Protein: UDP-N-acetylglucosamine transferase subunit ALG14
Amino acid sequence: MKSLAGLHSGLIYAALAIVLGVFLLAFRVLYVMFRRSPCPARMKAAKTLVVLGSGGHTAEMLMLLDSVDKAQYSPRSYVVAATDPMSGPKALARERVWQETDSPTGFRIHQIPRSREVGQSYITSVATTLCSLVFAFGLVFKEAPDLVLVNGPGTCIPVCAAAFVYRVLGLAGTRVVYVESIARTRRFSLSAKLLYHLRMADLLFVQWEQLARTYPRALYAGRLY
Structure:
């Protein structure tokens, strides 16, 4: 009887420990989601991980980087989808120009599996998204960026999710900044909706005022490039 009583008590303590752990984890998730640290008046150089989403997204991101002080966002690393043959060379060419005109800062280019190809069914995209997540977690842990800069599309979600999880676990303090495409005038893209509603983005900029009215937590920045 004593052994049964001891087993029963042990199970109760284990259950309480699990409940407490779940509660603390949920509290931490909500804390990270809803807490917004004030931006410093003068930001030191931030190690930046830039996700290039292919096509027009890559073009817009590189134009955005054209307009910023590269020394403030350095060193830089780029993430491109493994099936995107164009974004990596474009980033390389632009970086070579910047290295000649600005102070050399160094950069790297990484590939991860694309979470979902254009036209791919949502059912099969579950497996490819999980695969992309595995690579994204490894990459974000290795790079340990201060800032993740993204503008969609789906390639950016696993990277942002990895940065968010590491922040919840207290392993990193990475901030996520999303810049919505100038082509989005009235509605968010799917990537923006996910980052906005799940609060994974610390800052989410839009380039049309009516879009900011639809999504109050988005920041209207005007045309950025």
